[in-house]
Design a protein that fits this description.
The complex is a heterodimer. By secondary structure, chain A is mainly alpha-helical. In chain A, about 55% of the residues lie in helices and about 5% in strands. Chain B has a 22-stranded antiparallel barrel. Chain B has a five-stranded mixed beta sheet with strand order 10-15-16-13-14. Chain B has a four-stranded antiparallel beta sheet with strand order 3-2-5-6, with no helix packed on it. The chains are: A mainly alpha, B mainly beta.
């Protein structure tokens, strides 16, 4: 009897237990899990769309100070004026970088890489997808990854190269930094795949379309000193027969709307989803976080630029010319770059687009490639011709090749002219600092700038560029705390 | 609402007639005392003078019973008047306390349980449970979040033992049901609150009990003859700003701009002096304008009663609280109904139903930044409309009056139970309870409040509903054989919780006319979404209690919980506990202590509790939406972690209860040591994975400390009584290991790392302000040199200890060996590593927000009809990070943000100044006013006279004529007196997550209140 009782009791208990297990199995409703996520090309599209979100956050982070620190405030074009915890742009301009600055944080870039890696990893697991969609997404994913690593390379130099997604906690790795060469190697691999699988029907200006893959490739090959490939990419871009230099009267539209034939790739902005475009407000004429430096303004105050270059009034708040002698130490709130806002005032709530690549940039890069290709007249003539396209659009007279051929070092003379042209044309677009690095001119240019400009107009203590590690940013302190395998370079 | 049944059984003739009066200890007559014969067949109730008359058979025994008093058995006598005096229960040792899934005699408790009865709860006429509990129970810390109406409180039992954002609050159980919102409960409805502090007591609640358990029992009436009792009370409160902060007026503000710009090198002040702009000609005292004397009404009514079969309790309350800031309020209506019905001798059923609705109009953060706004900025235009944002400074008046922000919460709880007694001692109880919590949030910001150009209207509409049900089945067996008392309990429980939310966030409405999400031009996609998520819990539990003659006590329980939140392999957790008690005062060898030691008990317990506060699908890989312009993205947001499991807390407790001189001096002491392991922690991941954190079971946290509570009856005479209650608690908290997790800085300020307490403030330590440029001079081993100047203030030499110094001189530099040298008026930071460079490596602990000692001290005086009580609450040794002060006195942003005038008076202004603060320099490149520094850390110790209350109870001779059983009036002052060195608004701070403690960020200021009230009982 007793045994039967126990059996009955035991079986009741068992059935209760199995009911409990059943009871505890609940499926998520509004939480999307990986079991059901990767089922169509739309999943990959959505995944890649998040890459742009992260790139945008990377640019716009710290109230736009990220973009300004990485790409502009370090060059001789702009002087940082603020020193808040969030946006210590003055110290960026003085080359006093430290690992406490929030702008040294690379988190958004690696979040973007995560999304690329997920997309590349799961794309082959999707069944019902057409060959053309597959190639298109495959190309875009690799192109984006190349763009992100290229940005990381330019900003931090040596960074960990991650090409596989982390799928669970057990798979978390603590990587070390890879050398600049290895980072560049990965970038080359990715851009080759992107170019190889390019989808020329992808023309969306707010996504990494065919044109922008060529533009990106041209930039990458220039960085790698592979001028032939750079020229090839610029020519492939031309072959798309989509892009041209627009009339100067449409200059503002290139930036605020990205709707012209000159626009290759831009980031789209929606105030409702992405809040203010703080890069634009940071440049804004009123209470700007960076002002256009006096040496930069001075170029436009000299002839023939003063009279003829239409870009001056379209780019700089000229009401501040000439700047007062204490303009570096006293921020009177004006003196910014007005190029990106329609009109001089950049309103909070600004949702203008942000240009990453446009045709004028590639034309000048194309010119630079020809000039660097070899020291021969034919290439140099081609370089001058390309450069003149941009000059003439701005209202300036075209250079004659003979203007340069009389110089002792023709190649250098043309390079200087191209760099000057890029400086004027692409002010504030994030190129100047890397133009100097790419051509090994940074140390001499910036050190002279510090000694002549900052020394004269301020008592700020700047740090000269003396060692190679200084070209790049330190790694953010907290990124090192979370991964002790990362080691700071040089004196950072 | 309720149909009440009164069964009055009349006496039978030819018996003896018994007459008498029932009184309490103080010889006050008791009305409505139930008087029955032992057989229960005959009975009556005492009248308004406490008199009764009953005819009963000879030699029968009468049982006198009354709520809150100990029942008494008296022989029926025929002659004269029978005077019966009843003793209140709370003075007795046979007091019963509620424990998980049952109750126990307080005598037999072996864990650390503190309890409050309704009288203690009512002592300061609290409006919610948090204020009823604050400072009352040793080891239970309550910090109200702010003075904002309906803003809630932070509660901790024995310190913080977890690292999850919202997993540190105790579990609240009301009449056996887990509730999430205790704000809605009216303290008047409560008959007792038990706080289960040690693991042995709490472990019966298993995975939800790691932070302690608070059991709340609402009034219920015994199933015996009761005449209906009606309680009505009303109180009226006036509140005012408790502490006005110093703020610059217009002229101070203009001077401040001059001082600031002088240090920035501006030579020409004329521009800033030009304040002829018509919208900058004002001189407001914002605190006088934005604050008011606010009234609060509180009305409460309840009715209760019953007979041997049926009993009921029902209440309704209305609470209307206006905030001291304009146009803020909290209104609450709450109703409760408790019914118990003894169907047969064996079967009893009952229900507990409660409903509440709260409407809250909060102040928004923008309205609370008035301290930063210049006094001369316009608030109202000539045409009477509100001025819009000026230079990014919100118009606080416009924000308060026009921001249409409101919360509307509905909370419904329903519980039905069935109790069946198989045989004497063996009872089965099954209950099912359901809860629905609906929360509506609405906000609309009209154009004038927009900071954007052009101005944009925005609105948010949200509805969220949490529904849950719980099914409990408990079997209990109790038996007493020859002094051996045994009780066994076992049960199973199922719980299911579902959370759904719909929210809408839009912008760009064309007009202010319809203050809701309609006619918009854009949608904020991040804020427009629906959520539907759930979790479930399945449990077995059991308890065994044994005691021998109340002298040797033993309790053990175990609970197994399965949670849907964890991976299938780690789903179940076991939570055992054991505790023993020894009543040594009953031992014969302790006879010598008689009669001074009335009772003495030693208690020792050990138990393991758990915590499951991770996300609902914490172990799975999840994706979330992000938006880029017009494009919608989905991206991985959480990494899968199949090994994720329970957080476990083991706790030892040793305590002693001493009762001297029959309750005149009662002392309880507890020591505990609590260690939480496998802490659920959103551990940081290397960002190179693309994920910032993931839930892991990491490391351990230790809390240990002691609690003392001393209750004394200092004077007790016929007319005058004075008693005091003192409780003290000291807790030491430390993160004892963080294996596999890395150091983390929360908000760049609070460090989470091995060896640090939670709430440790981390940053740069200010030692002094350099008086002269030449003061920044040190010997190579770090001793500061003293500069010497001649009569014309020219630097001559450095001295060290009075001797001329000619050796090597080192200077502190900012950030790098080639960085800026600190000058006169700059801060001398502590150079921790001695390299003369102030950088990240010099960061250190600069404060600990956790107090050293907290407690409460109550004094009650009773003189005839008067009662006076004073309740002090104190917290000693906690530090506060004064973000409010940093915000306005950092000088960085612009001269528009006005510093605290007291800060500027104590700042360095000229060489030689020995100052508290650095020079007010807006362009300092050496970050003198950096945020993560000890300059903004202050001692937050305080003693508050939380309330002082005078009550008058009308003599019965008066009230009986008015047919009122009891009539009381009272007046009280709340928060009128605070002793503290803290310079901010108020040192009592609640808000913030687990890590961010003692963080003062422009919170809604607290009020001081004066309250009048009247209580009536019929």
């Amino acid at each position: 009897m007793k045994i039967i009782k126990y059996i009955i009791f035991g079986s009741i208990l068992l059935s209760v237990t199995s009911c409990f297990e059943e009871f505890l199995n609940i499926a998520p409703v509004s939480d999307i899990t990986s079991e059901n996520f990767w089922d169509s090309e739309e999943s990959v599209r959505a995944e890649l769309n998040s890459v742009y979100t992260h790139i945008q956050s990377a640019y716009n982070g710290n109230s736009g100070a990220n973009f300004l620190s990485w790409f502009e405030a370090r060059s001789d074009n702009f002087c940082g004026t603020v020193k808040s915890n969030e946006a210590p742009l003055l110290n960026v301009s003085l080359n006093n970088l430290n690992s406490d600055m929030p702008t040294t944080n690379w988190n958004n870039w690696y979040s973007a890489i995560k999304c690329c890696n997920y997309a590349i990893h799961f794309l082959p697991t999707i069944n019902n997808i057409s060959q053309s969609s597959y190639k298109s997404l495959f190309s875009e994913a690799h192109g984006l990854r190349a763009f992100i690593y290229f940005s990381l390379l330019k900003i931090w130099g040596s960074v960990p190269v991650i090409t596989e997604p982390t799928l669970d906690v057990a798979g978390v790795e603590y990587p070390t930094r890879d050398s600049r060469e290895m980072v560049l190697e990965q970038i080359m691999k990715d851009i080759e795949i992107a170019v190889e699988n390019i989808d020329i029907t992808n023309t969306d200006v707010f996504l990494l379309n065919a044109g922008s893959i060529y533009a990106l490739a041209a930039h990458i090959y220039m960085w790698a000193d592979d001028y032939e490939k750079a020229i090839e990419m610029a020519e492939s871009l031309d072959a798309l027969k989509k892009y041209s230099l627009v009339n100067i009267s449409e200059f503002h539209k290139i930036f605020s709307q990205s709707s012209t034939a000159e626009n290759i790739w831009s980031l789209q902005w929606s105030y409702a989803n992405n809040r203010t475009n703080y890069i634009v407000t940071g440049f804004g004429a009123i209470s700007s976080n960076v002002i256009v430096s006096n040496p930069m303004r001075q170029i436009w105050l000299n002839e023939p630029y003063f009279s003829n270059d239409k870009r001056r009034v379209l780019s700089v708040d000229i009401t501040r010319d000439p700047l007062p002698s204490n303009h570096l130490s006293v921020v009177a709130g004006r003196g910014g770059c007005i190029k990106f806002a329609d009109g001089e005032f950049a309103a909070e709530g600004n949702e203008s687009t942000w240009v990453i690549f446009r045709y004028a940039d590639i034309v000048l890069l194309h010119a630079e490639a020809y000039n660097r290709l070899s020291d021969d007249a034919q290439n140099q003539r081609e370089a001058v011709r390309l450069m003149n396209l941009v000059r003439v659009r701005a209202g300036l007279a075209a250079y004659d090749y003979n203007d340069f051929s009389i110089q002792p070092d023709v190649q250098r003379a043309i390079l200087d002219a191209i760099l000057l042209e890029r400086r004027l044309e692409l002010l504030g677009e994030g190129h100047r600092y890397f133009d100097l690095v790419r051509n090994d001119l940074l140390e001499e240019t910036m050190n002279e700038y510090f000694d002549t400009y900052y020394k004269t107009y301020s008592s700020f203590e700047y740090r000269k560029f003396t060692e190679k590690y200084m070209l790049n940013f330190p790694i953010y302190n907290s990124n090192i705390l979370e991964n002790k395998n990362l080691v700071q370079e040089g004196n950072y | 609402m309720l149909i009440l049944l009164l069964l009055v059984v009349n006496g039978i003739a030819q018996n003896i007639q018994v007459q008498g009066i029932v009184t309490d200890d103080n010889e006050q007559p008791l009305i409505g005392v139930n008087i029955q014969t032992r057989e229960g067949s005959l009975g009556t109730v005492s009248d308004i003078d406490g008199k009764f008359s009953l005819s009963v058979p000879q030699n029968s025994k009468l049982i006198f019973s009354y709520v809150g008093f100990l029942s008494k058995e008296v022989n029926a006598v025929n002659s004269g008047v029978l005077n019966v005096s009843l003793t209140p229960i709370n003075q007795e040792l046979d007091e019963v306390v509620v424990v998980g899934y049952g109750s126990m005699k307080k005598r037999d408790i072996t864990g650390a349980i503190s309890s409050l009865n309704s009288e203690m709860i009512q002592q300061n006429a609290p409006i919610d449970i948090a204020s009823a509990l604050q400072g009352r129970i040793a080891g239970f810390e309550v910090m109200s979040n702010s003075g904002e109406p309906g803003s809630g409180s932070r509660m901790r039992i024995r310190g913080t033992s977890t690292l999850t954002q919202d997993g540190a609050s105790p579990l609240f159980i009301v009449d056996g049901i887990e509730v999430s919102d205790i704000e809605a409960i009216n303290p008047n409805d409560i008959s007792s609150i038990e706080v289960l502090k040690d693991a042995a007591s709490a472990a019966i609640y298993g995975s939800r009990s790691a932070n302690g358990v608070v059991l709340i029992t609402t009034h219920s009436i015994k199933n015996e003859m009761q005449k209906p009792e009606i309680n009505v009370s009303y109180s009226y409160k006036l509140s005012q700003l408790a502490h006005k902060m110093p703020q610059m007026n217009r002229l101070d503000g203009l001077n401040y701009i001059q001082i600031r710009e002088y240090f920035m090198g501006v030579e020409d002040y004329s521009i800033v002096q030009d304040s002829l702009a018509p919208n900058r000609l004002y001189d407001y005292d914002y605190q006088d304008i934005l604050f008011r004397t606010a009234p609060t009404h509180n009305i409460y009514a309840s009715v209760s009663g019953g007979n041997t079969k049926l009993s009921y309790f029902s209440s309704l309350s209305l609470y209307d609280n206006e905030g001291i800031m304009l146009n803020t309020f909290n209104k609450r209506i709450a109703a409760r109904s408790n019914v118990d019905y003894q169907m047969t001798d064996k079967l009893k059923i009952g229900s507990r139903i409660s409903f509440s609705n709260r409407k809250i109009k909060p102040s928004s953060y923008a309205a609370r930044t008035y301290l930063k706004r210049p006094a001369d900025y316009q608030m109202v235009e000539a045409d009477g409309s509100y001025s819009s944002v000026m230079n990014n400074r919100h118009n606080p008046l416009a924000v308060l009056m026009l921001s249409d922000e409101k919360k509307d919460n509905y909370d419904i709880n329903y519980n039905n139970y069935l109790e069946y007694k198989f045989i004497e001692g063996l009872t089965f109880r099954s209950s099912i309870s359901a809860n629905a919590f609906l929360n509506e949030y609405h906000a609309f910001y009209p154009a004038v409040l927009s900071r954007l150009t052009p101005q944009v209207r925005t609105s948010v509409d949200q509805k969220h509903m949490t529904t849950s049900w719980t099914f409990d089945n408990v079997l209990t067996y109790q038996k007493i054989i020859n002094g051996h008392s045994i009780s066994v309990m076992g049960g199973i429980a199922l719980q299911s919780v579902n959370y759904r939310q719909v929210s809408l966030s839009v912008l760009g409405q064309p007009v202010d006319a319809a203050p809701i999400s309609i006619g918009y031009s854009e949608v904020n996609q991040n804020g427009t979404r629906a959520t539907d998520t759930s979790y479930r819990l399945a449990s077995y539990f059991s308890r065994l209690s044994y005691s021998y003659q109340g002298k040797y006590l033993f309790n053990t329980n175990i609970r197994a919980d399965g949670s849907s939140r964890f991976g299938q392999d780690n789903r179940w957790g076991n939570f055992p506990s054991v505790s023993v008690g020894w009543r040594f005062s009953d031992e014969s060898f302790m006879d010598w202590t008689y009669p001074s030691l009335t009772d003495g008990k030693l208690r020792i317990s050990y138990g393991r509790t758990g915590n499951q506060t991770a996300g609902n699908f914490a172990s799975r890989s999840l994706y979330t939406s992000v938006y880029y312009g017009d494009y919608t993205g989905l991206q991985p947001s959480q990494l899968a972690n199949d090994n994720l499991g329970w957080e476990k807390t083991r706790q030892y407790n040793a305590g002693i209860d001493l009762n001297f001189f029959k309750g005149r001096l009662m002392l309880t002491f507890d020591y505990y040591d609590k260690e939480t392991s496998d802490v659920l922690y959103a551990a940081r991941l290397p960002q190179t994975t693309g994920f910032s954190s993931s839930y892991k079971n990491i490391g351990s946290i230790r809390n240990n400390g002691f609690e003392v509570s001393i209750n004394t009856e200092n004077i007790k005479t016929k007319h005058f009584t004075w008693n005091t209650q003192l409780n003290l608690a000291k807790n030491k908290n430390v993160i004892s290991s963080l294996a596999g997790g890395e150091q983390m800085l929360i908000d760049d300020l609070y460090i989470v790392d091995e060896g640090y307490a939670i709430g440790t403030i981390y940053g740069y330590k200010k030692l002094a302000i350099f008086s002269y440029d030449e003061s920044n001079a040190f010997t190579p081993d770090g001793k500061q040199l003293t500069p010497v100047f001649d009569e014309r203030e020219r630097f001559v030499k450095h001295t060290l200890d009075g001797q001329d110094y000619n050796g090597e001189i080192k200077q502190l530099r900012y950030n790098s060996a080639t960085g800026d040298v600190f000058k006169g008026g700059d801060v001398m930071w502590h150079d921790k590593n001695g390299d003369f460079v102030i950088d990240v490596n010099d960061k250190q602990k600069i404060g600990n927000a956790q107090p050293f000692l907290v407690g409460g001290f109550t004094n009650n005086f009773f003189y005839k009809q008067f009662a006076l009580s004073m309740f002090f609450n104190f917290s000693i040794g906690g530090d506060i990070f004064n973000q409010t002060e940093y915000d306005r006195s950092n000088h960085i942003w612009s001269g528009i943000t006005k510093a605290n005038p007291l800060n500027v008076y104590q700042s360095w202004l000229a060489p030689g100044d020995i100052a508290k603060y650095p020079k007010p320099d807006g362009s300092s490149v050496v970050q003198n006013t950096r945020r993560e520094s000890s300059m903004w850390v202050e001692d937050g110790s305080y003693i508050k006279l939380k309330n002082i209350r005078l009550r008058y109870r009308f003599p019965r001779s008066i009230t009986s004529k008015m047919k009122i059983e009891r009539l009381e009036v009272f007046v009280q002052l709340k928060d009128f007196f605070v002793w503290t060195n803290y310079t901010g608004q108020d040192p009592e701070l609640g808000e913030g997550n687990v890590f961010v403690l003692g963080y003062d960020n422009n919170s809604y200021p607290r009020s001081k209140d004066m309250e009048f009230g009247i209580n009536m009982k019929f």
